[in-house]
From TrEMBL:
Membrane protein topology class: Multi-pass membrane protein
Name the UniProt record assigns to this protein: BTB domain-containing protein
GO biological process per UniProt: action potential; protein homooligomerization
Gene Ontology MF, one: voltage-gated potassium channel activity
Organism of derivation: Rotaria sordida
The entry's keywords: Ion channel, Ion transport, Membrane, Transmembrane, Transmembrane helix, Transport
Lineage: Eukaryota, Metazoa, Spiralia, Gnathifera, Rotifera
Amino acid sequence: MRDLSHQQIVGVERRKVPRNISLQNRIIINISGVRFETFKSTLEVYPNTLLGNPKRRKYYYDNVLEEYFFDRHRGCFEAILYYYQSKGRLRRPNSVPLDTFLEEIIFFDLGQDALAQVRKDENLKEVEKAQLPRNRCRRYGDMVPVTALGRLTAVICALAGVGTIGMLVSVLVDRYHRVYNRKLYIKPEQIDFNEFSDEENEDLEMGHGNIHGDSLIVNIDDREE
């Protein structure tokens, strides 16, 4: 869609409105320093929107300048104002990012129809919401701990998990340290196999046999020499 300038928007609006309409129906909207002129009757075609509802838009009215002021995106508002004038046609300007355009649509509360129109034009797919399990016990695991009891339960579960991992790591490290030191620095004749489990005894006995075998080979070599 070709971007409409401020003069074009005002000109189209004036051609549509008869001259005998009172000036009280005229409305000026200031968007970050750029003023747009339209009529209340045009905006009130969509009474559920921010601009179409007099009670909601009055909070943005400046009594000194006699205009409505919004610190919003100027390029987006041209398309939003055209949405009111064209009675439902909404197109994103090429110079406006999609996320910014969606933010402005949500701010001015154009409704689900406007969002659906943009999603269709931009070929966007709505993300389906994941449903919680029907089983009550399983649903408790998917719920966010927002209550005091829920947070306490989450803390206890986290501490229990960390404690379990810490215990296992300490046991494994201690066992490896004892076996490694005994294999390297203790003579096989001084090892008390009753202090180890069956698997550790097998490892030590195999090491013991290898040591005697190596010493026997060395003795034979010495004799041959």
